[in-house]
Amino acid sequence: MGSIEIFLVSLMIASCLLPSVSAATRHYKFEIKMQNVTRLCHTKSIVTVNGQFPGPRIVAREGDRLEIEVVNHVHNNISIHWHGIRQVRSGWADGPAYVTQCPIQTGQKYLYNFTIIGQRGTFWWHAHISWLRSTLYGPIIILPKKNTPYPFAKPYKEVPIIFGEWFNADTEAIISQALQTGGGPNVSDAYTINGLPGPLYNCSTKDTFKLKVKPGKTYLLRLINAALNDELFFSIANHTLQIIDADGVYVKPFETNTLIITPGQTHNVLLKTKPHFPNATFYMIARPYVTGPGTFDNSTVAGILEYESKTKLHLKNLPLFKPLLPALNDTNFVTNFTSRLRSLASPQFPANVPQNVDKRLFFTVGLGTSPCDQNKTCQGPNGTKFSASINNVSFILPTTALLQSHFFGQSKGVYKPDFPYSPLNWFNYTGNPPNNTLVHNDTKLMVLPFNTSVELVMQDTSILGLESHPLHLHGFNFFVVGQGFGNFDPNKDPSNFNLVDPIERNTVGVPSGGWVAIRFLADNPGVWFMHCHLEVHTSWGLKMAWLVQNGKLPNQKLPPPPMDLPKC
Q: Which Pfam family is one of those matched by this entry (predicted)?
């Protein structure tokens, strides 16, 4: 048995993987249950998978089929999204509640059944309903096909590192109050690394993630940002990280002391340890990158990098070094870092960038307002409620699943197939905001024929303040062909697009006060969600959905739903 196979077996044991029927089908069982968990000297009952926080890791190989049975034992409705997995012709397993499925109700279960096609790398799973993903999340590790090497030297060890947020209060109560009052929700009490806040918070020293390493080795760190609302800087003191992967796609390697990772994104990085025992320990820390006018958790999570020693040294007596992170609002660093990301674009891993475009779209993204409900007091601007929108449409989730309504031809009264290609009202998007900040609330879908080549420019707006927005597209990867600051110029900016080796990913930050251009091929039939991965903005309506029609061939059509698809 080779080292990769040993690694796979050990991960499966750690992940509670049930015996497989065949080598290519991997079975998991997710029991959704309440569990008492203590952090920051505060104990609360949280929703978990199998009583674990964070949840169990899923491990498979490219080409494997995954069958994950989710059984709901809690009072909340549940759905699980497999973030970054393309779900080729398996949209029924994608997971966002009221988009591809009705949620799994109390006492019910659902088998998520899908195949990993043409993907390998680090992904993750999380609840996709309300704010339950604050505790319902975990890593997905897709290894290359058997006997297929990495396009870099094999690491000594692989370690998932997942960033999250801890709230002392009930997150469901937090978002419920925010939606009722129309104001901003309370922020988290701590950030976490693998569920642990670390020693920089009060009453948290014992809850510290420690990465124990050997000198002269290379470690593959699988980084995941599962935080609800914050982009994060990350660094390890006195160590360099080599970026080798973004959102499960290999990139041209480059070295950095610090990286930025938005909610929803993943990065694989190589950490080369020092050749000899350094007589020191090192903080590995993360804290937020902030661009908007709202409140945020201005704190720092820390883990500790410890070197193993052949002699019994007292690590407490060793100096502990701390890295220097960029300023909270250092947009220049973020821009420079993201501009260095390039697809590997090798013969084995090509960058298949659409060279010709069938449909050009221009979406404005940002915050606006909605009128306060009758006889209610609202805490948004001038007594209104905060609402987020794309092209001034604040998306309303229906009470039944969009995909089911589409498949059975029952869309009437559920959604409208007329999402606007561009803003209805043009203005100076990054200049003085318009007087009217009200948004239009509706359920509209953008319809695309199968195999449409799409170019989409997403433009930040200054209506209630410029802000970065990490946008996640379900069902597809896309190529980030361009980005810039100010208003997008359709006459000048496309000439600078990178159509050779742009980064390919599934989640991208729309720059604060700027724009980003992406291209993708709509070759996956179904209904696919696109939304901001700042959970508060998604709750306020910064989301929309695409309807990709069936193609002509059998392998270009969405199969019927499974028999156990949950009912609303």
A: Cu-oxidase_3
